Amino acid sequence: MLARTTGRAAAVLLVAEGLGILALLVWQIGALFAGDTAVLTTAIALAVLTAIGAAAVLAFGVATWRERSWGRSGGVVTQLLILAVALGAITGAFAAPGIALALAAPAVVTLVLLAMTVRASAPPREDRAGGDA
Questions:
Q1: Is 130 or 114 the better-scoring residue by pLDDT?
Q2: pTM, full prediction
Q3: Which of 35, 56, 100, 108 is disulfide-compatible with 86, CB 3.0–4.6 A?
């Protein structure tokens, strides 16, 4: 029961992250049409990669909801990548601690929920007190 509850909560957060990436894609497309990009081909490539990333994170969310292990694995990798971006946002010449916190907080919560789901859904281990290996 715990695996299902934590898995569903993690899935909802993954879908929310995927929708956030879709919002970023809409913003990028708007910048493309407004002419706010320096190099058109680079902006298009970034938009395509953002669309692929959004589709992947949404797929991880749906797979986690359906209790598929690959969705949880992809979700864990996604959270680690988000934490790396948050670390980059808090360091450097243009550090933005608020943005870093806004990225890191849901990523940590989702990562913990995914870890709890993996732990709860693992098959029970047999205790080998007799010493046979």
A1: 114
A2: 0.85
A3: 100
